Amino acid sequence: MSERHFTTRRGFIAGLGFGAVSLYGTWAAYGAAPLPFGGKTAAAPEPDAHGGGHGGHGAAEAPAEAGGHGGRGASAGMAPEEFRFEHDYFIQRYTQEDGSVNPHVSEATHSHVAEGHDHGHDAGGEPVDVYLMAQKFSYSPDMLRLKAGQAYRFRMMADDITHGASIQLGSASRITRLRPNTVTEQVITFTKPGEYLVYCTVYCGQAHDAMQGRIVVA
């Protein structure tokens, strides 16, 4: 009785082994064997487009933040040092006797274009460049004189801490967050003459409520 059980067990084990070998042979034929005997080895990872094979580059990289020329956001084309230079020139060149700044003064004696600093004033309907610096607790310039119907490219930056610039446009307003050493652009066209208020929308200290500027549109 025991001998017959032994024979049956041995036959069962032999049959199981034969079935396993047959199954493995089928895997190998399709290159799916779990061991390296199947004829195919795992392909080495291809290097990424940068030629490196650095970890994490297998997936598409997230695009860099848009440079700000479409809607408009942070400007990718102007460094803080360049902004400060252009801002200072803008103030120096266009400040009027009453302290306001008017970028439409006569260009007769203005050689800045020849020096490579053309701000595009009234040039074929192109936006006129306007520079606005935010700092505790004021804007520079604090009063602008502009024209109705003319597009203006406001180039703005905070000089110390984060500020805001809200330009009242009738019942609505254009709000921009200004960060230190980050140039931000907004293209704005004032359709009606009038006086427009600019005020800070980010708390910046005790005199925050007094941080205001004016835009007089004629």
Automatic annotation (TrEMBL):
GO molecular function, one term: metal ion binding
Region described as Disordered: spans on this chain: 41-75
Localization in the cell: Cell envelope
Alphabetical list of Gene3D superfamilies matching this protein: Cupredoxins - blue copper proteins
GO CC annotations, alphabetized: cell envelope
Protein's UniProt keywords contain Membrane: yes
InterPro entries reported for this sequence: Cupredoxin, NosZ/Cyto_c_oxidase_sub2, TAT_signal
Keyword Transit peptide: no
Transmembrane intervals: 12-30
Keywords: Copper, Membrane, Metal-binding, Transmembrane, Transmembrane helix
Protein name: Uncharacterized protein
Species annotation: Azospirillum brasilense
Lineage of origin: Bacteria, Pseudomonadati, Pseudomonadota, Alphaproteobacteria, Rhodospirillales
